[in-house]
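Handout, section B. The chain below has 233 residues.
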Amino acid sequence: MTRTLNATLSALGFAPVPSIGACIAKAKESLLLTTPDFDHYENREDAEYFSIWGGSSDEFQGWKSSGPHKRIFAYLKPFPSLYALVRLLENWNCEVVLYGDGLPANVCQKLCEGSVRILQGPVDLQQVAKGCDLAITNGNHGTTLKFLEFGVPVFACPLHGEQSVTAATLKTLDIGSFFHVSKIEHAAFELGALLVDPEVKERVAEYATRVAESIGCGRQRAIEAILRIVDAI
């Protein structure tokens, strides 16, 4: 990332920087696309939060099942226990829709042997949220926050340190849970407890309301903050 930044700075006639961290350390203001709860660095001074927003995606064609079946949307990168996790959900008679970012063809073929529906590209998460009982992500920040914003609890399968921090925050706030991908035996307990919790969606809705009230229109406020800083230069 530093190499890319310095190449851009060089093309614009500016001096290189030693690291991304050095730039952040000198910043007088922090404009953050997250929420205070999901900021990995607590007690920041002079930080403004704008939540998260996403771009356009393909239309979601809707859920197929009705009645008591749980509807699960999984947005995941490949990991060794992915197949076992999906099969667990199918054994519980859940409707599973999966968008696999970078899933090998042989894994997709194996998953298609069951009832899981595999999407070929990203879809509108707000449409997905209508009727969705649970989202499963790798704990990636943007997707996780968008599902919470739309009132959907999240079960995380983190693959690296930053995602693990997001996953732990879900558990702390009691609006989701997680498991370590190397320990599939823990998934059934954590996932099962989340699916049968009658109040989890209410807690997520309360969290989403609190964030909306405290942050407001994040995109517009971010534009205004950037223009304010540019004008002061």
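Note. The chain has a mean pLDDT of 87. Compare this with the example in section A.
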